[in-house]
Amino acid sequence: MKKCFFSLLICILLLNIQYSYSQFTRQDTLRGSIGRERSWWDVLKYDVIVTPDYNTKSITGKSSIQYKITEEKHSDYLQVDLQRPLKVDSFYYDGRLYINYPAMPYYNEGNVWHVPLPKAPKNSVHTITIFYHGIPAEAKRPPWDGGWIWQKDAKGRPWLSVACQGLGASAWFPCKDHQSDEPDSGATITITVPDTLIAVANGRLIENKSENGLSSRKWEVKNPINNYNIIPYIGKYTTWHEDYAGEKGKLDCDFWVLDYNLEKAKEQFKQASMTLKAFEHWFGPYPFYEDGFKLVEAPHLGMEHQSAVAYGNGFKNGYRGRDLSETGWGLKWDFIIVHETGHEWFGNNITSKDIADMWIHESFTNYSETLFTDFHFGKEAGNEYCIGTRKLIQNDKPIIGPYGVNQEGSGDMYYKGGNMLHTIRQLVNDDEKFRIILRGLNKDFYHKTVTTQDIENYISEKSGIDLSKVFDQYLRTTRIPELEYKIAGDNLSYRWSNCVAGFNMPVRLANTKNEWLKPSAEWKTVAMTADFMNKGLQVDKNFYITVKKL
Hints:
By secondary structure, the protein is α+β, with helices and mostly antiparallel strands. The protein contains 12 helices and 28 strands. The model is unreliable at 1-19 (pLDDT under 50).
């Protein structure tokens, strides 16, 4: 009987997995996985050239992908991603116009181009260049709905940009559109626009040309960068420069805003140095000194575009003037400056290989808001802010999404993920040790792509606590652990319910000198003092759990 039940259980699980993945298409798999046509080559550098046309909402461009062959035996084809309705005009291989092999033509499959290339030895370096044009996807509700943004500023002048996290950089330039392969040597982006406008992008300006009424600016990033972070900003910008004295020396900080917003931007952007100071304390040195730090006013709310953070919060504190925590602390600082800058450490320095693990970006960056508040306004202020955001948690589905199909998990990766980290901080029970762990993550995974398991194992190892069940509970289920208790005479009985098998997270009691309970799924009973019985069971509110008296 037990054997039959076990077999039935396995069948149910397999059917659930099959059903879960049935909603995805071959295009999702081509985009979201490292298949045979992606696994054998490593991107070294992108060189992107683009000319947008505001009137027709079209672009023409050229994308050169320098790569290294990493396998002796590999697929005859290389997969290049470029989303429809953009069209390829021609391919060049190592500087020569590419002519199809009669027996192996290159061909298009949805948002993917399969390109056969000559055999070459392992570790050799080559370049494939793609000329392309068309009308790219237009963002209807950026940054949540991605694509090109064709707007006008308050004076009626063109104001353009791109937001493509989730949608992917292949929405506007040909690339290997997968987070696991960042260009080791960075990227350049050259933008040509009418000379009445200014084009800004990631990194440093290395070339500026003007002729025949057109301006062409070339920007360079020396560090590895996520594809979705390579972004043009085009508008009637003005700029100013500041030096920040950081942990690694002088950091160049440049601020780009529309000309009529200069004065209020100079006042609001004073928070940039406050943010860098707080995060260098908690996370370690800013990860991209070579490329500098920029805030760029954008025609959308904001995004973590590496070394060129998009800002669109209206020069207000809070989230568009609101305190998401409803505690008052969220109005002490500008949400977009703090949150998007936090991504320079988690998301840009440390990047998840698969977007199913985007909690690595968003949970830590959500918690950076708490740490910023803690640094500047005190620990209790940070605690109050973090706890105040719990009302925004949905518990609709697990935080980790399905792997290999370009699919994120629940939006709870923000507030629930942040509160999970806050709970882990309580378990570490030593803020300096917790800070060393955060700094260690950014040092040991510097400019790397990682998996959830990498991060889980690291925190467990460095904290000296097996946190596997804690991560399972908060990342892989929608259940909030419930501490059940009952009182009989002088005895307190307690246990965990609504939790994963083996969940045994200890909890600290409130208003005590570091006294803890160590519940499991089985009832435990202890004798308590009369004073305790009068007050009842009070658990430290910094733990994201529920408490229920039976």
